[in-house]
Amino acid sequence: TLRGLVKIIDNIGDDEIQGVSIPTGIPIVYKFDNIQQLTPIRSEPIANGGASQVHMNGLFLEKPGLLKEALKREEEWVNRVPGYDDTMMKAKVPMTSLERSLTKLKAERELGDWAGQFIDPMDLIDDGDDGGGTFESPTILEEEEDQVMEKGLQELEEDAQSQSQSSVNKNGTLLDDDDDDDDDDEDIISPFLITNNPCQKPLPSTSMIPGLGQVPVLRDATIVIIRHGKTEHNKLGLFTGWEDAPLAPEGVEEAKAAGKLLKAHGFEFDLVFTSWLSRAIDTAFLVMDELDCLWLPIIKTWRLNERMYGELTGLSKQMVKQRHGAKQFMAWRRGYKVRPPPVSSFSPLYPGNDKRYTKFMKDVRLSLSESIIRSIEGKGLKVTRKFPKSESLYDCMERTVPYFTQQIEAEANNGKRILIASSENAIRGLLMHLCDIPENEIVGLEIPNGLPLIFDIKSKCVKLLDDGTGRDPLEVYNFGKAGNYLFRPCKKEDGSIDEECDIRFMSDYEISDEDKAIAELIKLPRAAQTAI
C-alpha cells in the first residue's frame, strides 16, 4: 500500500518502483510546495541520521537497517542478561507530574510510618548547640541494620497476607477491593438495601466447559456501557473532570478483564463510541483488543466527556471537604444542578486553552465575551466558541443525552450492537435517562470501574454478566443507594420475566417455587447435588 502511494506522489515508473523498498517501522516525511497538486520537494538527509532512496523525494527519519540492528541487540540482551526481559517489558503507564508528586508523597508517608517504629525519639539527642540546631543521627547501630531490614520485610509480608485474607469473605469468595476508587469517602452500600436484584446473564456453557464448541455470537441489537478503568487520579482521590488522566496499571487490567468477560459471553460490536479523554479511549481500545476487533470504527465525541469540575479539577477531595465543609463538598460533587467554581478564561484547565477543543470542537455556539477577551489579548479579531468553565450533572446531561438519543440510540434501533466507553458522570446521566431515576436520587448512584453494563433494547433494563465465580454482584460491586432504580425487573413485552436472567440472583418474589428449588440446588456443592 505504501509503495503504491509513493509511486503516485513521486510519479515513479512501473520499472523504477521495483527498486524502492519501504523498511518496517521508519516514518517517511514528504514536503510539498503545492498542496493542491501534491508537488513534492526533494528532502536532503539530516546530519544525525535519515536517508533517502533513488526515485524518492521523501526522507526516511532513520537510516534503513538501524532498527533491525537495534532489535537484534535487544534480543541478545534478553538471552544474556537474567531478568532483562521481565524488567524492560513491564507495562509503562504514563503519569502526570501532579500524579507523580502525590504518589511519591504517599509512598514517603507510608515509608515514614513504617520506618518510624524503629526510631526512638529519645535517640534524637540535642548536642546543646542552639545556633546551628544540628542533631545526631537516629541511633540505629550498624550491626542492627540487618535485623531491622529482616523484621521490616517480615512485617510487610505478614501485612500482604492479612490483606489477601481480608479480601475473602466468609464463603471463601474474593471481594472486589474498591477502597482506592474516587468514591472512597462514600459509605459502601449494603446489598440488602437494594431489593431489586440485577438480571445477570449466565455464562454460556461453551465458555465453562472445554470442547463444547465455540461461544454463540450475540446478534441482537444491544448497548454495552462501561466506565473507564481506574486512574491514578481515582487512586489519589483527586477531582479529574476534563483533566486527561491516563489509566493506572489496575485500570488497564480492569479494561482487559471486561473485554475477556464480553468475549466469554459472545459479544460482538458494530460501533464503538467514546470521549476525547485518553482514559476512556484506552479502555475502549483494550476491550476491543480482547475481542479481536481493533478494526471497528471508533467514534470519539467530547459530548461523552466527564463532567467539567471547574476550579476543583486536580484538587484533593479530602482537602476540598476540609476547607469548605462536607455539605458544600457534596453539593459540588454530586449536586444535580450545582456547579463547582468556574475556571478563568486564562486557566490551563479551561478547554479554550487546549488545542484539541479549540481546533476540533465545532458544534458549540460562538461566545461574544470570549471573542472580545481573545481579540484584546491577540491584538486582532479572534472569534472564539463558548467552552464550559464548570458543569453540574444537569449541564453534563444537556450534552450527553441528546447525543445519545440522536446518534447512539438511533443506531441501536437500526440493529447495531454498540459499545460506549465513558466516564462516571456522563454514564450516570445516561442511566438517569434510560432508567427513569428521579433527580433527587441520582446523587446516590455509583458506577464501578471497568464493569460492563448491558442495556437491553427490548426489555429496557440493565443487565450484568456472570463471570463464572458464582458471586452475587451486589456483594462485589457498589452501585450506591440508587441501585434499585438501576436494577428493576427485566420483563418482556408480555410482562413475563426475561429468560436470560439467572434465577440464582433473582428476587424471591420474581420466580416460582419450582424455580426457587432449582436455584437452591444449583447453589449446593457438586457432591451434594450428586447425592440428591
Characterize the structure shown:
This protein is an alpha/beta fold. Helices cover 38% and strands 9% of the residues. It has helices at 2-10, 66-80, 84-88, 97-116, 145-166, 205-208, 232-236, 249-264, 278-290, 317-324, 326-334, 355-360, 368-378, 393-413, 424-435, 473-476, 483-486, 513-523, 526-531; strands spanning 28-29, 31-34, 39-41, 59-60, 199-201, 222-227, 271-274, 298-300, 366-367, 384-385, 417-422, 453-456, 461-465. Strand 2 and strand 3 form a beta hairpin.
Topology:
Elements (H helix, E strand, L loop, with lengths): L1 H9 L17 E2 L1 E4 L4 E3 L17 E2 L5 H15 L3 H5 L8 H20 L28 H22 L32 E3 L3 H4 L13 E6 L4 H5 L12 H16 L6 E4 L3 H13 L7 E3 L16 H8 L1 H9 L20 H6 L5 E2 H11 L5 E2 L7 H21 L3 E6 L1 H12 L17 E4 L4 E5 L7 H4 L6 H4 L26 H11 L2 H6 L1
Parallel strand pairs: 5-13, 6-11, 7-8, 7-11
Antiparallel strand pairs: 1-4, 2-3, 6-12, 9-10, 12-13
Helix pairs in contact: 8-9, 10-11, 14-15
Number of helices: 19
**Alpha-beta content class:** alpha/beta
Strand content: 5-15%
Uncertain runs with pLDDT below 50, 5 residues or more?
118-145, 163-187
Give the termini separation. 65 Å
Give the strand line-up of the largest sheet. 5-13-12-6-11-7-8
Helix content: 25-40%
- Number of beta-strand segments: 13
Question: How big is the Rg?
Answer: 29 Å
Overall mean pLDDT: 78
What global shape is seen? globular
Biggest β-sheet strands, sense, barrel:
7 strands, mixed
